[in-house]
Amino acid sequence: MKLEVFTKSENREIQNTIISEIRNLINYKNLEPGDKLPSERSLSEKFGVSRSNVREAIQNLEFYGILKSIPQSGTFVANIGVTAMNGMIEDILTLEDPNFKSLVETRILLELKTARLAALRRTADDLISMRTYLDAYNVKVKNGEDAVQEDLLFHLAIAKASGNRTMNRLMLIITPGILTNFEKYHVCDVDQAFKGMQEHEDIYSAIEQQNPRLAKEKMKVHFKMLYQYCYNINEE
């Protein structure tokens, strides 16, 4: 069996084509909210693409709330109305990949809120998770090693501790792009990494003390340098 490897732009084109075809299927078949879509196999044969491509497109539409998959039952049209569905799909098809600045802005907005909520809602297990990643980060920094992944894992642990599933999910979505751009632009130098150790400790301490105002303030201090840095970057 031949294994096809597509570039990022080619995969985006395939996904957009499948999403358009699913939209047409819903419209032309007059599918109502709650109606079931054909199986992945049927759709892959109908559209002339692989089942994995169909599955990815369905997952994208499910993320935006247009479709809903139920284990052992299938995929169904969500209850949002045809007009809203068509408008949302049109927006999805014209979405551009986020640049580094937009990722940083989104991350800062999210994390100021997650830090505050984590201070209010964190559990003992959440503190253990944060402490584990924080210690791993400190060890790597002291050894002169790249600790970007441990840094982000610490922040993801805070997002999880916030108890807000939507914010946690958004953090997980933007994290791969942040990792890629941190490496591309060499964001964390040695001095900033050492400074980050104390800033992380301050954030952790505020969350441990269940002080939401202080947690938000310490997170804001932590991101001050990153915010300034990203606006000095010339992106293509």
Description:
The protein has 236 residues and is mainly α. It is built from 10 helices and 2 strands. A hairpin with a 3-residue loop joins strand 1 and strand 2.
Portion of residues in beta strands equals: under 5%
Number of alpha- plus pi-helical segments: 10
**Total strand segments:** 2
Terminal residue distance: 38 Å
By CATH, the architecture of the largest domain is named Up-down Bundle
The shape is elongated
Tally of discrete structural domains: 2
CATH superfamily of the largest domain: GntR ligand-binding domain-like
> Taking all residues together, what is the mean pLDDT?
87
As a whole number of angstroms, the C-alpha radius of gyration is: 21 Å
> Helix and strand string, N-terminal first?
HHHEEHHHHHHH
Largest sheet: 2 strands, antiparallel
Global structural class: mainly alpha
**Order of strands across the widest beta sheet?**
1-2
- CATH level-3 fold name of the largest domain: Four Helix Bundle (Hemerythrin (Met), subunit A)
CATH class of the largest domain: Mainly Alpha
Proportion of residues in helical segments: over 70%
Task: Report the uncertain regions.
Answer: none
